[in-house]
Amino acid sequence: MKKVVDTNWLEQRLDDPELLILDASQSTSVNKQENAIQGKYIPGAITFNLKEFSDQYSELPNTLPSPEYFERKCRELGINGTSKIVVYDNAGIYWSPRVWWMFRVMGHEEIAVLNGGLPAWIKENRATVESPSQADRPGNFKTNFNKELVKSIQDINQNLTSQSFHVVDARSKGRFDGAAPEPREGLKSGHIPDSSNIPHEDVLNDGYFKSSDELKELFKHTNLDEPLAFSCGSGLTACIVSLAHSLISDKISPVYDGSWTEWAQSGGPINTKEA
Q1: Which of 18, 51, 76, 253 lies most in the core, judged by the most C-beta atoms within 10 Å?
Q2: Per CATH, which fold does 148-266 belong to?
Q3: What's the mean pLDDT in 236-246?
Q4: Is residue 74 among the annotated active site residues?
């Protein structure tokens, strides 16, 4: 299964009994498209609430839950081990790559992100419904945790010395440079030493992933065979850039789950453009 599929691909397979569509839309406004398409769903889509699929006891915003918890929540949604999953969101490409990454971490490879998301589906006048579907029976989904796709703060700290992988930060240039404030009050901006910056907006074009040639140009200063790890503010937009990178490198690189929120609170070294 491809990592990213288009609206034509999905529409042709809506009747596939193994296909399971997840709506990862959130109410938080990202790009002002969301309000215009509230109350619209792709037929058969089941709501996937990212907050419910996060560690409920973590002080960080979007922490990956335990495999056991993830497995139980997936079964409640009727997800099976054989399910072919397509996930989309109401911002085009924003929330859905995080869901894609979580499933890959949990060992499920048959998952793709819908390029353009719900805005593209609606713009093309494809059929929608007014409410999400519900699972008619529990699923049999089973996790197989892939620790290679997750970086911890300990990994990042050790890497300051070992330099065994390169960190790519998906936040805005201003936040990365330390020139713009962080959206979370009291959090200092700047970046992890020796990291580089590819803002998540740069891999997208109007809610779609850019072409392979355009993505290769963005990553031209990064050896595609070099071990990478992706970071951002809270582990969300890092997944967008990780997915974009996987489209041109044919491998999936890990995400630092705690990302800048954890790092800036930890007392670890912080660099700015002037540093």
Answers
A1: 253
A2: Oxidized Rhodanese; domain 1 (3.40.250)
A3: 98
A4: no
